[in-house]
Amino acid sequence: MTRSQSHPKTRESLARDFAELGVASGMTVMVHASLGKVGWTEGGPIAVIRALLESLGPQGTLVMPAESPAQSDPQQPIFDPRTTPTTMGAIAEAFRSFPGTLRSHHPLVSVCANGRNAGEITRDHALAFCEGKGTPFERLYELHAFTLLLGVGFDRCTSLHYAESLTPSRRTTVSHFAAMRDGERIWMEVPDMAPDNGVHFPVVGAKFAAGHSIRTGRVGNADAMLFSTRELVDFAAAYFNRTLERPYGAR
Length: 251
Prior knowledge:
Blueprint: H1 3-6, H2 11-21, E1 28-33, H3 35-38, H4 44-56, E2 61-67, H5 90-96, E3 102-103, E4 109-115, H6 118-122, H7 136-142, E5 146-150, H8 159-165, E6 172-181, E7 184-193, H9 201-211, E8 215-219, E9 222-228, H10 229-243
Parallel strand pairs: 1-2, 1-5
Antiparallel strand pairs: 2-4, 3-4, 5-9, 6-7, 8-9
């Protein structure tokens, strides 16, 4: 282990890393992150969040996924955006309850945002095809947001589900969760995007990275990629339109 890897990261050192990567004031950025990959950090996940918010400034917006797949268990309490935990890692879980953070109301695939565009991003979240039209993922596309993969790969990039949802041959499943309607608890079943399970997302990510402008670097100990969400979605939608017309698993 090198000296830089063994020494703790700080909010200040991470902010410098984010700035060098290209995270700048006024951006809207969806972050998928692994604290373990960033490395030992003074202040833990809160330091990472503060470094990101500092880099984005008061006109920027920080966004993270806040998925809660356990809500598909009928024994779970009704989803509460204020208290239902996320399973997206330590940084996303800390961001969920960070002062000023707003959260969309989808029981399984909510999104958290903090900053100028937070209200617009989290305002509505369609229950069916929860990563498609009428969701925060569509608004991130419309806002010309950026995606930051911090210590994770394209298999964790939820905007690829949005891209696939736009294509006629999209892979689908049925999602289940409890909800309140007219004061009564009901069990809902809605159409949704199927999980990729590593079949296409790493492939389309590698192809996108090979031919598009991606900022790469290190944030703490983590490999990081910063790129246009709109460019990725447009590229991936074209890929899915071509590829999903073929027999499943073909390239």
